Q: What sequence folds into this?
């Protein structure tokens, strides 16, 4: 690649967020599935619906320690006039007894034990007493009392979990209860992360404190965001502001997607848009958002390349609005923000400009929303101080104090 006219470095136009996402969706393809053991499935995305092939529980079981009885015989039992039954056996968890409960009989049973035939209820141990071979029951029970019925939790043929769900610990337990030690999940996208800039050094570089050097914080932030989504980050380190070097990195990156940060604006050394245009297609460059307006993406060799700004906050916002939806689509997840939300009132006015979507960092103070005063896109610490952010639509010119706003929690 040779040199380019500096005029080619400008934004042809700034793309609205909705339009950028529409173009992005057309380029993303879901990854295939793989089967993994349940102890490897936490945080993975379910590839197929989970439909129960068995009832849970598969047998009637006792929900308490007590006595299996015939409920109709207990009506009228009280402390003053206890019912006397013959104690004819015992059922422990994991042991299926063959003793049937007949008229005037009871069987001692532990929590989780299989309720014997003939019995339709379990009286709690607290309302019963043993005397010799007899049981004295001082309270009545109704049919089904303290008995978990077959299929009470899950019925055979029931849709249990839908494809696209990110598996939580409780989901793994549910799948295990269906006698399934393995589960089909979507393959993990491998996301290469490249940070650019002659000024960047690693955190352990001896020159980290030298004037003019900037520690490469974006690497850890972006790789953390990738990992948080259940994907595999591949660190490509730091590339200097050299068109040839960047071209080689973009042309031969490992993995499914490349995420770059820096060198994407319209300055003299912002080569990445030129590199992507030369190697493939630059689909979007420049967006009507703040922070993150220099962001964009393209395709090189049928793989997506994301161009995120170098300023840390702008990089995080651009990741959130572009890379996150792409990864969610690749994983077969429902596209949308992961952030929990809440609505609260503004403590003071929140200003923003028309014709761009603005992401305003905020704190929650006594249940109200306080916009952060440190608003620069290079102030990374503001993202640690913020509780979340408010998205101001392009057709809204800020919000007044006292207005209800929706906060996306970080």
A:
């Amino acid at each position: 690649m040779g040199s380019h006219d500096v005029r080619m470095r400008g934004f042809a136009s700034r793309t609205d967020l909705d339009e950028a996402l529409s173009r992005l969706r057309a380029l993303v393809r879901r990854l295939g599935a793989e089967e993994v053991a349940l102890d490897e499935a936490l945080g993975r995305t379910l590839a197929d619906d989970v439909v129960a092939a068995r009832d849970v529980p598969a047998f009637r079981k006792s929900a308490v320690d007590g006595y299996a009885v015939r409920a109709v015989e207990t009506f009228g039992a009280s402390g003053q006039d206890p019912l006397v039954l013959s104690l004819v056996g015992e059922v422990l968890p994991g042991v299926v007894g063959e003793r049937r409960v007949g008229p005037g009989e009871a069987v001692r049973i532990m929590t989780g034990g299989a309720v014997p035939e003939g019995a339709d209820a379990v009286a709690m141990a607290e309302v019963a007493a043993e005397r010799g071979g007899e049981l004295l029951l001082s309270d009545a029970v109704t049919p089904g009392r303290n008995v978990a019925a077959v299929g009470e939790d899950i019925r055979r043929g029931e849709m249990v979990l839908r494809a696209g769900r990110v598996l939580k610990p409780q989901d793994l337990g549910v799948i295990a209860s269906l006698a399934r030690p393995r589960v089909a999940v979507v393959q993990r996208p491998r996301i290469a992360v490249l940070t650019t800039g002659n000024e960047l050094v690693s955190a352990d570089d001896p020159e980290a404190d030298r004037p003019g050097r900037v520690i490469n914080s974006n690497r850890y932030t972006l790789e953390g965001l990738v990992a948080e989504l259940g994907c595999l980050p591949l660190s490509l380190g730091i590339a200097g502001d050299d068109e040839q070097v960047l071209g080689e990195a973009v042309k031969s990156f490992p993995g499914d997607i490349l995420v770059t940060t820096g060198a994407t604006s319209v300055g003299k050394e912002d080569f990445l848009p030129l590199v992507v245009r030369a190697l493939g297609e630059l689909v979007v460059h420049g967006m009507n958002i703040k922070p993150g307006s220099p962001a964009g993406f393209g395709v090189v060799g049928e793989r997506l390349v994301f161009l995120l700004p170098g300023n840390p906050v702008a990089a995080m916002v651009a990741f959130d609005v572009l890379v996150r939806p792409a990864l969610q689509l690749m994983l077969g997840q429902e596209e949308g923000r992961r952030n929990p939300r809440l609505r609260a009132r503004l403590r003071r006015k929140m200003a923003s400009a028309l014709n761009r979507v603005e992401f305003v960092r905020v704190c929650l103070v006594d249940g109200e929303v306080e916009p952060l005063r440190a608003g620069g896109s290079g102030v990374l610490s503001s993202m640690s101080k913020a509780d979340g952010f408010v998205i101001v639509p392009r057709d809204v010119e800020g919000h007044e104090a006292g207005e209800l706003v929706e906060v996306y929690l970080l």
